[in-house]
């Protein structure tokens, strides 16, 4: 069994920054990441993109390369292609790598598994050819693939970024179907002063909008009643905008209405979460250092609450400083001294969040979809089914599993949990906190029985320090 | 408004009894707990099982047999009333053995039980090759199996769904999210819940699983119930590879292979452990080697509701006549008996089953 | 032979290898992301759901949605978490074999 001072789950900006800061403080670090290369989602393949792709993606992306290079440190052992499937007290993590199951123990655990796109259930969203905007980014970053004849739909700055990148690559989207309304924009203005503190971020956003305008990409705003249709794949997207019904032919639909913390790992060890109404998602309970109510477990990055890549890095470093102090490698005074500039930067990074959250709220109809719409993709359970279970006395998501199997498929509720909680809360008139969320249990990711059975030898394995 | 019966506990046991009482024209109110409660009804293995039960108490074997025999009609009446199919399959089930010795030992015990049951215990011994003909995927380590023809399995979640719909559809009232604080008795039972809800009923059935341990003594029961954890695995959906269920693994109607279970005394702890999962996986692969490549997609721990001897408890309260304790760890197998025969015992009709061996008298005061 | 695909490759790259998908031969970029390469080769549906037989393809591309499941050497895997290698035999999940259609 591998042993380290600090075990970091996830090699995105938070995980990478934390690993380096911890290593610099003299801690041994084991960094587990399921991807083949470090970078997480936002910096996917940043270490290996060809020049042309890098130009399209822009400097916000390419600057992530430096972070990946920070992992080159004798105190950091980075295991790529390692899929964690169980976390236990210890902390101890079971994972699979190269078809073999293994375990690692540490004195502290940092969960840096990032975010997921908020599920956006609209009619037809399960058809082949419908993907998330993030998926389009990954196709571009990792494989240099552009989506031709694509329509972007939903709300949030990522839509504009993807649209601009597609235009730069010579395959502009057919259209932007935006659910943001005039009322949303007006409500956001109240938070403009906060946003102005992150003026660079705002300027980038305005720049993207200008680029899209120059590209001549048609924009439909205040969109509602979005539906995707096709026989065996996405062929058209219909929606209402400007009082008219539109129907666009397309080959690909890219959906996005915000990102939410990926809470699977934290929930699997019963880290308490609470509902954040502004971000319309559950976030873990933690202190300013990222320590959860489980004293050995920390969370940093978008998994702690959406803030973006720079904020994630800062949080990763802050967590590492506190962990180093915990383990006697720095004094509280030195920790505080190093943390002060990080906290100041973090405050600036987060200053624009209220504005972004108000300006780009989730698409209302996708939060509480119509009865016919599938909400659990894996088990094909509809919103109407969930409403029916509520009528049969289902108070929370765990009871729905007994009624219709939502959350019981391979994705373990990643793409239906929030929707099911919202629907049940709405039906019962209770808050999302009172309604609760799926109980998450191992395996976090599938593991074969053969890999699992081989673990019976692990109890007698010798301890192997990672560095 | 007063019901004939209040049933504390809306799991399979409580709802089966409720369904049976409603069929007899009684009015029923069921009080069920909240979303986070330990619910054996959601975590069990789904077997409708006769073999290995009542080895020390033939009456329990007999009770299980009666229930298994009544299950098809019970499922049919539920399906007819609600449209929900509990997916019952009764083609027999296996007790797999990895050594000839343990197989022979078990057979010897079965023969003794069979004699006590007047010969009504239809089982066969299958050697490895015969077993392979029935179950092509069984592995070389399996020495043989006992195939008992009265065994089977069902889908416990569909059963639960059917019961929930059936009880409501037949005029039963189901109150969810209720925690019972106190129960008083004047002319009728008054059940006071923590949120202020009050339910009045002529008679009361306590079927709250592990919750009965705390509430039972308040009603005059001993309720010596303890939790015992069972960890269970379930794989991705697979093409049909297992024909009959066994205590190690069964293929559920939706296609996944369900593997279980541990028997751990860990208190009110329903977590799963890497060690537990690994052990179960190893056993499953020893029985069916093809499962080595199957992906585990879900696991859970559930708490069995166990009496000291593992047998059900059916007891009328000596202090509060009209209050009954109904508890068992085989709520799926006994669902049919609880729906079809137990109401006669509650109503004290002349076809009431003799359940004296299941009373609390058998638990000596310590 | 490449089927028409709504995905365009930004860069030409050499190094294609032969793989078999659902009974058809495809030439995919060696070492590429399997889900991406299948999409680029014009494959739109990777599997049919066990519940209703509905067609599904990649959705999240980050190993979270499990819609891109394929079967490789008898084991169900997410295509977006696999790399292309020569001679790969890829089938629809749950077909119990290499998935010759």
Task: Give me the number of helical elements of chain C.
Answer: 1
Distance between the amino and carboxyl termini of chain A: 13 Å
Largest sheet of chain A: 8 strands, mixed
Q: What integer value in Å does the Rg of chain C equal?
A: 13 Å
Biggest sheet overview of chain C: 5 strands, mixed
Tell me about this structure.
- The complex is a heterotrimer of chains A (about 475), B (about 375) and C (about 100).
- Chain A is an alpha/beta fold and about 475 residues long.
- The longest helix of chain A has 19 residues, at about 330-350.
- In chain B, the strands form 4 sheets. In chain B, strands 1, 2, 8, 9, 10, 11, 16 and 17 form an 8-stranded mixed sheet that branches. In chain B, strands 13-14-12-15 form a 4-stranded antiparallel sheet. A 3-stranded antiparallel sheet of chain B has the order 4-6-5.
- Chain B is globular, with a radius of gyration of 21 Å.
- The model of chain B has no long low-confidence stretch (mean pLDDT about 95).
- Chain C is mainly beta and about 100 residues long.
- Helices cover about 5% and strands about 30% of the residues of chain C.
- Chain C is built from 1 helix and 8 strands.
- Chain C has one helix spanning about 35-40; strands at about 5-10, 15-20, 25-30, 45-50, 55, 70, 75-80, 90.
- In chain C, the strands form 2 sheets. A 5-stranded mixed sheet of chain C has the order 3-2-8-6-7, covered by helices on one side. In chain C, strands 4-5 form a two-stranded antiparallel ribbon.
- Chain C is globular, with a radius of gyration of 13 Å.
- The model of chain C is unreliable at about 95-100 (pLDDT under 50).
- Chains in contact: A-B, A-C, B-C.
- Chains B and C meet through loops of B and loops of C.
